[in-house]
Structure prediction request, 650 residues.
Amino acid sequence: MSRRLYPLASLEQIQNSPSRQDGIPAELEEDLRAYGCKLIHQAGILLKQKQVAVATAQILFQRFWFVTSMKQFGIGDVGMGALYLASKLEECPLRMRDLINVYDLLLQRAAHSLKPEGKEFKYTPMSYFGNTFYDLKDALVVAEMQLLKRLGFDVHVVLPYGTLVNYMRLLDLTGREDAVSRAWGYLNDALQTPVYASYPVQTIVSAAILLATRHLGIPLPSTPPNCWWDLFDAEWEDVWAVCGYIMRLYRERSLEDRRQVIGMLTKKDVRRWLEENAPS
Amino acid sequence: MDAVEKANLERQKRWAKERKVGEGTYAVVYQGREVGTGRKVAIKKIKVGAMKDGLDMSAIREVKYLRELEHQNVISLLDVFSSKTNLNLVLEWLETDLEMIIKNHSLVFLPADIKSWIAMTLRGLEFCHRNFILHRDLKPNNLLIAADGQLKIADFGLARDFADPGYKMTCQVITRWYRPPELLFGCRYYSTAVDMWSVGCIFAELMLRTPYLPGESDMDQLKTIFRALGTPTEEEWPGHTKLPDYVPVGQFTKSSMRDLFTAATADCLNLLSKFFIYEPRKRISARDALHHPYFFALPNPTHPSKLPKISTQPSSRTLEEVDGNVDLDSPGPAVKAPAPVPNRLKRKLSSVSSNQDGRETYARRLDFSQ
Prediction:
């Protein structure tokens, strides 16, 4: 096995994450992680930020929740901090005010979606020197520092895109544009799951290829001892587990479930939820 | 307090700050010790609270790259911890830097010493380049010297990776005297060649004992370069007139390096001239430089522990050992260099505190200002 440059969560951290220790159910944590990543992605698009910075931010965000509980930090603040930090790491720094404005819009839109239906969403911009700005700015500075500190200042992230191109070439699939773009899409969607913080890149890329080729009915050698994923040092169990994480993103969620997630953007909301749902 | 806070506190307790040795815009440097072993360390405290935009880019770059790089000739980052709102980098303690050594005219350099310093610089830099990292601020005061004589490349505040070819980067990097002409012409796509130019300047400075190309402004820097090396022709450097900030600065003919570097061997001059090739793609790489005949010819490079160093004792070397590389009586370089008036020489971005009783107190430089 080659030496890995990026850190992965330990088995213990995966089995019993800090949020779970605080009483947040596994499924809810998964949904909150995914929602935090969606916000990062939306903010990235609105800010026209490079995808490498957005992906890096999402991976740092996912790692953060293996060392910290959502009772202590809100997914909104940490997501904003992760995008800010990742943009610096990838040499495309953002203006603080731009990022704050965009997050303010996203948070307002989230709050609006919880209100009774009927009214159309209208964004109210914050005042230039208002408290909203300074509160968000403080939260941003704290989140950036906490991310660094809690990740042990290890901010190395390896993105999967180059590996996918190589693997597709090796499998002689570069001619199948549908397969390539589909696999690419799965890699991006996987950024909303914790897999980048718990599996090596080659496993995740293999999972994306597996999903893409099976959905498109492209046959690849898959009977032992001739399995294509062996070529990429990926274990079948791991590849299959990553596929599971990705596919779970697409499952139907009830309106209540979705509203519950949107209503837990801050640590205050999480704490309130924990009190209301405390086991008696 | 959760596990992370506890771990941080543990780490913080491992290091003790002793005294302040320097201050820059974004950080304060302390001399400190590892509590358990008594080992001397430098602790660089990055001020966070004072900053408008969160953590400074150069601090982030430094943490990112030093975490990754581990080499004998690159400064090592021992630990990182935070205290309240501050970020602290624990770096190995290094006594002095190459600038201090060059400026201390009581020291005599042998050709073998220069070879040794340049070899160590190139080894450290080759390692950075092999790992796709550009340093972008090489100059004598960023080459620190350990107590055992090992040279270490420090200050990665301007460093960045260059894995993406064709990615636009800023040309406002590298301290002016060590900046290559392509950056002065506003070139936004560049590579390892920019660091190699700086190495050439350092190499020349080691021989001259004074900066080789000390321009007073960006414009003057180009003139200074062309006066020394001749104005490049389209043949020597195809396409340079098309660079974004290209301005004609006049025609100069190449002055002979042989006349300036009187004591240099043919191998030495040959290597030096390869660092100063105008066309960046043809400029020698760190790897090729290390394979240059200069490093295989006699004299062999001095062992790091035997290199000249700043100390209270006068040099123990006898005159016989000195082989005419430097004129001992003159305070300046023994060359017919068009040397600038010394007191007009103001090295940018440096703040050396030295007291005149022979012993130099040395403050780690904090180059965050670019």
